[in-house]
Design brief:
The protein is of the alpha+beta class and 150 residues long. Helix 2 crosses helix 5 (136-148) and helix 3 packs parallel to helix 5 (136-148). Helices cover 33% and strands 13% of the residues.
Length: 150
C-alpha cells in the first residue's frame, strides 16, 4: 500500500488485519499515538486521515491506500509547536501526558470543524477523548485559546 504519512509518501506491505494504530506504533516507530483501550472508546489513538479525526485502533491500515495520515509527530511544522500544542503547555492541559497526543489531534480537528466556539461546544465535541488525570478544564481552555488564535 502507498499513502502519505506526515507529509511523506510511504509504501509498504501490510497484513490486511493490521490496524492503523499497530502499523504506526509497531512498524513505523511512531509511538506518539497511544494505545489506550484498543476498542475506540478513549480517543488516545486519534489521528487525522484526509483531514478528519479517526480512532487508529478501529481503522484497518489497508483501507488507507492513497490517503493522507497525520499523527502527533507530523502536527508541528518548521521546527515549532503547533498552536494547540503551545496552548496545552501554556494552559497546563496535561498531567501524565498519556492522553495528550489524542486530545491534541482531536482538539485540532474540533477547531477545524468549527466546533470550538464555546466551552460547552468544545466539551461536547471532545467527549470521545478521556483524560484519566482530569485535566478537562485546562484542555478546554487550551482549545479555546488556540481557536481564538492567541
Amino acid at each position: 500500500m502507498t499513502f502519505t504519512l506526515n507529509g511523506r509518501r510511504t509504501s509498504l506491505v501490510v497484513d490486511n488485519r493490521t490496524s492503523l494504530l499497530d502499523l504506526l506504533r509497531e512498524r513505523l516507530d511512531l509511538t506518539g499515538t497511544k494505545k489506550g483501550c484498543d476498542a475506540g472508546a478513549c480517543g488516545a489513538c486519534t489521528v487525522h486521515v484526509d483531514g478528519r479525526r479517526v480512532n487508529a485502533c478501529l481503522t484497518l491500515a489497508v483501507r488507507l491506500e492513497g490517503a493522507e495520515v497525520t499523527t502527533i509527530e507530523g502536527l508541528a511544522r518548521h521546527g515549532g509547536l503547533h498552536p494547540l500544542q503551545r496552548a496545552f503547555v501554556e494552559q497546563d492541559a496535561l498531567q501524565c501526558g498519556f492522553c495528550t497526543p489524542g486530545q491534541i489531534m482531536s482538539g485540532v480537528a474540533c477547531i477545524h470543524e468549527g466546533h470550538a466556539r464555546s466551552p460547552d461546544e468544545i466539551r461536547e465535541w471532545m467527549s470521545g477523548n478521556i483524560c484519566r488525570c482530569g485535566c478537562y478544564v485546562n484542555i478546554v481552555r487550551a482549545i479555546g485559546q488556540a481557536a481564538r488564535g492567541r
